[in-house]
């Protein structure tokens, strides 16, 4: 059978015969053709029981009637709407109270009230600009969520402040509920009043209108125009924009004069389709980035109001990277501290000439926002949504744009600023982790750039505002201070998306437009086809290869033309190694160090090590918790195929700076910022998994595992003493030594087991140890070498009087060789006194019987 197709149309009522600021119509005369006259598709409507009824006998279609109205200001509009159905997105009514066109189905400039039309079933006041609708006021949800809607609606305007009121009780004497207010003076003139119906075939006769009353003023223009911007679009052309349509007097060249020998323009003409923009053609070119002035006078608007003589700065500006920078960000305005309740981004123009933002765009992640307006020389401009402009002080440059009230994600987003030539001017990828204060992170405080000449400092150059109001929009930042970029540019990691492509990841952003593009040499040479910037990351390059990389082969690479950073400093001259990554297998990578009780304002971390001879793909490795036998809080280390070289250490943390600020980091490239599974302070667990959720390693930690010499474990990591130690055995994890700062992120652990150097059945290494957490002989290793792997052993420590101090291992099935560790504590975890202690290894074999091995060890502090 054929599918059913639901067709719906737009029905519009409109009329254009005469205009009057005050009128009413209750259809008591039984018609809509006189007093006042309505015109349009009259066959689609009728008056029934003294109500105007939609009656489209074609069952679906578009219809309109209208009457003229110049009422647009300081007054009210009220009417009744009855819908004999529950309105939806396909069946609803609109009443245009202000319109410049008779046919309000077209590109109208005006305002209308919508009854229904959304899934939330609200009553709304909407501004229509051509074909774009902007909601100004909305009721709460479901006010018209009923099978029969009886709504009396009243709209008031008081000097540009709109108020929307409604009563859905069907009472003859309405008791209006205020839906809200909004200030908007976009359109101040009206020619028509109209009603719009949108309906499907089952609603062709279910819409009724009545009791129209309009009592409002026709707007009288007594305000002269002002110049809103002056922009040099080329060296010989200048566009002057006025606040309202102007008369042909604006086309007289003598009304304009430019300083420094340029003089009056040759011609002045309106831009196509506009009477608010005048294009001036100059007799001589403007010099690039030179500041001129332009005088404008005697221009009048359509009402004859003459502009005041105006002198403005003018420049033909060529903007290159970092001439304009993103300087302040408020992503979470609530709870309000003292700033407007609106998201904003502040731009800073570093040039000594104004910069036009016409044709510019701001990218918020993947959303493009068109910009406009002018940033004065050496000054700031606040970018916010259009509805919030009035919330900011009038003495700062505030530019309204089409963005939502929640455009900026609280947790972070990537911001990129492009000029009219689509050149990247500046970028910032902000994060709420840049807030040092958890209270300020909750909202109401902006992030401010410290040094606007440190263009790509990212988190190293941004701080939370310290201004009492929460931020400094349009003004110098409260944290402004010299903060030069001294971090050398270097490669931190590789990823290999395909065998013929390499992505180089740097420790900071690269210059977006270097004079000479970077180049590299690779050995063995697969041939380089092209080197390009990464399409997503500002700190990455992509190398396309001629021949594919060979599995198992380790490559060597160095730059022949070194990349440069945003300050034009070259990258370090270093040799890097990489290879085609393989998916890790059990035993290839292990957990090696955990910090679960971080310092104040520091960050937790997990360190892993590639113990194999293979290049591993980090995107195939995950971290998680285990609860009730199930994996919980599974976290990918990275979505990119980043490389982990043989023997390499990697620190995973949610804040690299939160680790590097507190600990020595011998390998600055051994860090990756990523989400961690839950790591509670008292106890917890961490599992290391592959993409198939196969367990590589697992460890259950407790704070009491720390050395008794550690009085306060805050900021102290637990280190694995050997890559070959058993999985999830607390005996082989020790507190990081005080001498290294209580953690060793990214390099060899301070606590390391020593391999046995003899073939003795029982060997104690060292002979004397000192468990004082200085990183030297903090524990004793008790090695054993047996003639078979079927022994069951119990290892105990006693004093010279035979008193049991600690059972290190109890009836454990042993391999033919291995070792145990004693850290100088008793059964209750207390440190023991210095002295000589006896090591007793009680062994039993099902065929060879029992034997006891003994040795001794000295303990000192």
From TrEMBL:
Pfam families recorded: Big_5 (PF13205), FlgD_ig (PF13860), LTD (PF00932)
Domain of life from the UniProt record: Bacteria
Keyword Signal: yes
Keyword annotations: Signal
Signal sequence coordinates: 1-19
PROSITE patterns with a match to the protein in the record: LTD
Domain (LTD) ranges: 308-432, 574-729
Region spans: Disordered: 464-484
InterPro entries the UniProt entry points to: Cu-Rt/internalin_Ig-like, FlgD/Vpr_Ig-like, Lamin_tail_dom, Lamin_tail_dom_sf, SbsA_Ig
SUPFAM superfamilies tied to this protein: Lamin A/C globular tail domain
Protein known as: LTD domain-containing protein
